What does this fold into?
Amino acid sequence: MGNKKFAIYARVSRTDQILENQIRPLKEYAERMGWDYEIFTEKESTRKSRPVQWALYNRLLKKEFDGLLFYKLDRWARSLKELVTHMEALHEKGVILVSFMENIDLGTSSGKLMMQIMGSFAEFERSIIRERTMAGLDRAKKWGRIAGRHPKNCGCGFRDKRGRKHDGYMKPVRDEDNKLIGWKDERKKD
It folds into this structure.
């Protein structure tokens, strides 16, 4: 498979995560295989917004690259449906698909089955994490804590990780049990 041009795609979900943990082994693998490559990276992507991945997918469909190398199946797709749809479309175009960690040959029937099983588990794991997050936010709200991100200039007195205080005109509104029920802009008169 030498003399092939591959797209390397690496993605992390948060800006505090390090892309290099994926890029380094992918580059080493591509170099060991003798491939030319171009690296595409994405940080802090959501299910609906992964512009680098979408642009790369369209370039792959146009056969601008012979293959796609990514770290894990869940780094490319966020749902089983997306994974299967993309992998089938790319396979039909003759794009070589390599998942580094799973070591799956997506050109065989057993490889396709393994891809679907791994994708199902990744989707299940994301659903469990979401359920736990939502339960934690509900619990915090019931305890009267500010759940989620604070509004800018909320004035609650909380300090962020850098020690900056949330001073400002947005003040928390609490009921008689001291539970947070909303926010009040102190600049506006009732």
